[in-house]
Amino acid sequence: MNKTLLLLAATALISYLPSPRSFAAGDAPLDFENVSVTGATNTSAKPKVTAESKLPAARLKWKDLVVGKGAAATPSSTVSVQYVGVRYADGKQFDSSWEKHGPTSFRLNKVVKGFTQGIGGTDEIPPMKVGGRRLMIVPSELGYGENGTADGAIPPNATIVFVVDLISVK
Predict the structure, then answer these.
(1) 25-169: CATH topology
(2) pLDDT of 84-94, one tens digit each?
(3) Which of 24, 122, 134, 147 is deepest in the core (most CB within 10 A)?
(4) Better-scored residue on pLDDT, 39 or 2
């Protein structure tokens, strides 16, 4: 009798505990180098990007969240992308095409070197392909350097993080 009551009490207690969070497909956070991306594989929606690192990145780090199947970018390509940019130190968002007018286009040889290398590729980094989504951790030297941005959104010597969706390549 005592064992039955104990079992019933335990079952009742468990039923009142909060259930573990369940995630819709593609919504489970993906963690990489002190960066977390929720919605990492859902390229039809803005990903939620958080970061918190006490140390700056010493080199460009990248992870394909979705591998594209289309045309590959080159360092001199004109690309159309959707992106979110946050600071590596505290995760504060400083830019997002998702909250502006949608995808933006530019020549890769006219932007910060971290974008050129992270999207167009290097000897060590494969180029992105159309349809892909890539997480990039850009060290200051390949970003905005010792000056940061004029508006102060990116401080001097800041490592920055981007999640980029490659829409098209010309």
Answers:
(1) Chitinase A; domain 3 (3.10.50)
(2) 999 999 999 99
(3) 134
(4) 39
